[in-house]
Each structure stands twice: as C-alpha cells, then as structure tokens.
Amino acid sequence: MATATFEYKVRDKSGQLKTGKLEAETQAQVAMKLKGMGYAPLSITQANAGMSKEITLPGFGKKKVKLKDLAVFSRQFATMINSGLSLLRALSILCDQTENKELARVLAEVRNDIETGSSLSVSMAKHVEVFPPLMVNMCKAGEVGGFLDSVLLQVAS
C-alpha cells in the first residue's frame, strides 16, 4: 500500500492544540504514531494530494533566523542537554518557547526527523538556511564524542 499524507489536530500533555502532517499508509497508523508521541488525536484527515504542493520562490517568504537567535538557542539547548533532558524533550521545549517563528518551525522539523531515527546533525544539515555547515559539523563531532553540550556552548560563544 502506498503512503499518503495525513493532516492532524492533537492536544499535547499540557492541553495545547497542535496541528501537523504525517505520512503513513492508514489513518490508524497516524493515530498510533501520534499516541506514541504523547498526543491525544482530535482529528486525522487525508490531505488533498492535488492541493498540498507548496510553491516557494527562492528568497521570498522565508524569514531569516538571526545569528543572535541561533546563539541563544545553542546556549539553551546545551544547558538542557547538560541537565539530563533528552534531545527530543529539549527540542520540544525550545520549539514552544522560541520567539522566532522560522526557528521554531525548523526546530519542529528537526525534532520530527529525530523521532523517525535521524541523528541531530543529519537533521540540522537539511536546513542549511538556518544552521551553518560549521555548526552542523561541530554538532556531529559532539554527538560522536559524547560532548554535544560543550560543542553547543562553543557555538553559542
């Protein structure tokens, strides 16, 4: 069976309404994934395949993530990891708390990639418009060496 894109509305553990899209073969699989992520599904509908294609022109509609926002993110992320939070939990918190909507959107995508089995550096590398290659490679070294929090603090400086 071919996979389809499903749009969903859920409530998280704190009761906040969230929306998003997931690819799966059936609505039941989407519901299971969402429950596994700790969400309470409210509605799951198959996205209209003909109308779901986004058209973007390079340089238009993309809001830039400022270096200051990236430094603040790196410092907060390092602190959370150092205190024992998982990558997913730390990214969820930062995604909810960051004021830069573009950074929040990208962090949500990075979190979703990690949930599906990607490493942090691979997920970050997909967003070259936000994460510079040096930062991605430093994070990769930190992941491999077990000192990601130290690397993130260096990036923040």
Helix content: 40-55%
Strand order of the largest sheet: 2-1-3
User: Low-confidence segments, ≥5 residues, pLDDT <50?
Assistant: none
Give the overall average pLDDT. 87
CATH superfamily of the largest domain: Type II secretion system (T2SS), domain F
Order of helices and strands: EEHEHHHHHH
**Class based on secondary structure composition and strand pairing:** alpha+beta
CATH class bucket of the largest domain: Mainly Alpha
Compute the number of helices.
7
| Oligomeric category | single chain
Question: What would you note in describing this structure?
Answer:
This protein is of the alpha+beta class. The chain has seven helices and three strands. It folds into two domains: 43 residues; 90 residues, Type II secretion system (T2SS), domain F (Receptor-associated Protein), CATH 1.20.81.30. It has a three-stranded antiparallel β-sheet with strand order 2-1-3, with helices on one face. The radius of gyration is 17 Å and the shape is elongated. The model has no long low-confidence stretch (mean pLDDT 87).
